[in-house]
Automatic annotation (TrEMBL):
Residues 324-345 are annotated as: Disordered. SUPFAM superfamilies: C-terminal effector domain of the bipartite response regulators. This is LuxR C-terminal-related transcriptional regulator. It comes from Streptomyces bullii. Gene3D superfamilies: Winged helix-like DNA-binding domain superfamily/Winged helix DNA-binding domain (1.10.10.10). It comes from the Bacteria. Residues 258-323 form the HTH luxR-type domain. Residues 332-345 have a biased composition (Polar residues). Pfam families: GerE (PF00196). PROSITE patterns: HTH_LUXR_2. InterPro entries: Sig_transdc_resp-reg_C-effctor (IPR016032), TrmB-like (IPR051797), Tscrpt_reg_LuxR_C (IPR000792), WH-like_DNA-bd_sf (IPR036388).
Amino acid sequence: MAGHGTDEHPHGADRLCEAGDRVYSRAVRRGRVPRRDAEPVPCLLELALLHPDPDDMDWLVPTSPQEVMTRLLRGMYDEVSASQRRVGSAVRAVEWYAGLGRQVRPAPSATEGSAIRVLDGLARIQAAMDEATEACTTEVLTVQPGGIRREAELSEGLHRSLALRGRGVRMRDLYTHVARHGQGLLTYLELMGDAVEARTLDEVIDRLILFDRTVAFIPANADRTMALELRHPALVEYLVTVFERLWRLAIPLTAPLPDTGIEGISHREQSIAALLAEGHQDAVIAERLGISVRTCRAHIARLSETLGAASRTQLGVRIAQAGLDGPPRSAASLSVPDQGSRTAR
């Protein structure tokens, strides 16, 4: 795409370049266009007039002319006091999009396209999140993996959370147990007061944000530079059900973690023991629990010392003997094996 940067397309959705006009009009008439057709006009993606087809990433689907009109009108009224000339330009563009919208029949996939939308790039994700936040009136549910939350991450979204609190929106957040040790999260919850309720689990699913049980956001790639905006009622209801079941299993942040019943073994080490028994490698265990590999290995070393294991193989046997290889049992049923009788090697 060299040679087709934004410098060659210094315009907005209200005055498309000639090439952009052709490609967007074709996309509206046909329902979608091949991604390669849009390579000479990156402005269409930057302006969110085209976005990836969730069923086939080699194709791009258009934002409906009606949605473009709504966006333009919103921007127009925000800028009236700053630029009358800009208002006139936007009005003319709205008339053009309105005419185009009357000329075509909705594409067969129009409903599906609005139910599942691919957000390509952090700016598009942020804009969609801001829009959902503004429309939210009752409830936000979130799952936040990754262990201790960095204060920069919490600060970045604080303005949205405060705006929600101001409108009486209730928020429920799920974190891993490791997040309990982050001062940033504790400060955030103190600022939000009773508007936010937080609970923790040993491990959680990938990031999930649900607004009013009508729209959900989930990552679409590993580095989270792409996301899916889901509005299909069945998909959203499924994710709500997943959240509610995790919520019932989680422990309130204000409550202590349950004791393992074995002296010298923490709740985290009990979780690590169960994952070791399942055959997971150190790096996988660390990722699932939201801790570093180095910290994970330090816990494994303490487990080996407490259980009297001289090797990983023997550690597996000791874990099974202590009853740490499955779901947590009651404290009375857990005991450290007799280290004086070491039959396993």
